[in-house]
């Protein structure tokens, strides 16, 4: 069976995956880019198009970051990762934050209460808009993945809902040593998750803590 | 000026310093002893009286644990660390969790809305019962400390109130990779703490993450 994976999902020390007051100008709300700063210099993120640096790093941060795409056949993301708007689609001109050639290069399932027609981009990315709970979303994502793994891409609510529904095989969570104070918490209603996962952690030179959750055999 | 310090304060990955349903039998509520398991085998805790093991460790965990007493002249603790009871003291027979010779060996200020007479124990520990907010408690603790440092000993509310009041110089917080789901959170209302502190972290062989907060010069 294909695995369900989370990669490079960053939270603050107080557990927020996103700040308050998200908008078109501030996709992470008052958190700004602070939750992603560890990732931007990595070779993986530089190759994804986060330019502006001459050098890229291949240290501990990149060792984790670089695993995000291998064997992935589909991404599931929440509406809020795809678009800053809420409610019914006022127009369908919005094509995501990532330009004409998004870095996914696979089908991407956007969970939304407001379905619309699929949106085919350059480079192999097609956005599908689906109204489904996690088990049903996963069933349909696996049809798109052609036997490959499923990445749960965010945002915070979406990443939280899959372990809540016990539908996760592995997670890579990055704890950034800042205190956001407000926003959306990742770790709600996940008591006892450690009973089903082996948890490892390591601190990288950039100061973040990489946590990996690997589902135990039989758990 | 003497420093105000936190040592060995353990929280879960989701930020709880104590679980729900504290009682005489379960001082950490449903967390049990899981938040302290990293510390019990250390030479420092073994010498404090947490017996039952033949060997003790002097690795990373003990390197941090062992700093708790040096240059400390007084501890401030919340009522809930001293006693399982709430409200007015029904009798004054309760003498703390630590037996006749508590491991503090200094004055200990217990914050409570219900003052009572000081309680002198063996080995240099005297409990003082004081109704005061953090600035006033600190002022009075410094009088007892005779120029030495002040340790904020817990529980969760007490440890949180001192950085909230901007009255902390250094903190050692230990993140234990378990998810408690409920209890009392340490990281409430501490947005932006990283602006005033240098934060370092390291993972120990026991799997916990040691975080140190050192106040920046001038901050």
Would you kindly provide a written description of the structure presented here, covering whatever features stand out?
The structure is a homodimer of 219-residue chains. With 219 residues, chain A is of the alpha/beta class. Chain A has one domain: 3-Layer(aba) Sandwich (Dihydrofolate Reductase, subunit A), CATH 3.40.430.10. Helix content of chain A is 16%, strand content 27%. Chain A has 5 helices and 11 strands, in the order ββααβαβββαβαββββ. Chain A has helices at residues 43-47, 60-65, 79-82, 134-145, 156-164; strands at 4-12, 16-18, 72-78, 107-111, 119-120, 126-130, 149-154, 170-176, 184-185, 197-203, 209-215. Chain A has a 9-stranded mixed beta sheet with strand order 5-6-4-3-7-1-8-11-10. In chain A, strands 2-9 form a two-stranded antiparallel ribbon. In chain A, strand 5 (119-120) and strand 6 (126-130) form a beta hairpin. Chain A is globular and about 45 Å long. In chain A, 41% of the residues are buried. The model of chain A has no long low-confidence stretch (mean pLDDT 94). The A-B interface holds A 13-15, 177-182, 187-194, 199-203, 207, 209, 211 and B 13-15, 177-182, 187, 189-194, 199-203, 207, 209, 211. Chains A, B: InterPro entries: DHFR-like_dom_sf, RibDG_C. Chains A, B: Residues 8-188 form the Bacterial bifunctional deaminase-reductase C-terminal domain.
């Amino acid at each position: 069976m294909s695995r369900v994976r989370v990669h490079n999902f960053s939270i603050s020390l107080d557990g927020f995956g996103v700040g308050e007051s998200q908008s078109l100008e501030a996709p992470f709300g008052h958190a700004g880019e602070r939750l992603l700063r560890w990732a931007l210099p990595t070779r993986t993120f530089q190759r994804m198009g986060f330019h502006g640096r001459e050098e890229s790093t291949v240290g501990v941060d990149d060792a984790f970051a670089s695993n995000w795409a291998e064997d992935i056949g589909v991404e599931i993301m929440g509406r809020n990762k795809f678009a800053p708007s809420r409610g019914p689609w006022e127009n369908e001109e919005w094509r995501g934050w990532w330009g004409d050639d998004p870095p996914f290069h696979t089908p991407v399932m956007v969970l939304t209460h407001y379905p619309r027609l699929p949106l085919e981009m350059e480079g192999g990315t097609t956005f599908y808009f689906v109204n489904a709970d996690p088990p049903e979303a996963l069933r349909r994502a696996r049809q798109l993945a052609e036997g490959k793994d499923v990445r749960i891409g965010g945002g915070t609510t979406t990443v939280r809902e899959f372990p809540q529904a016990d539908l996760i095989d592995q997670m890579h969570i990055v704890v950034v040593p800042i205190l956001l104070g407000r926003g959306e918490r990742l770790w709600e209603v996940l008591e006892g998750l450690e009973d089903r996962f082996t948890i490892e952690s390591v601190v990288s030179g950039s100061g973040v803590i990489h946590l990996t959750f690997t589902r135990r055999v039989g758990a």
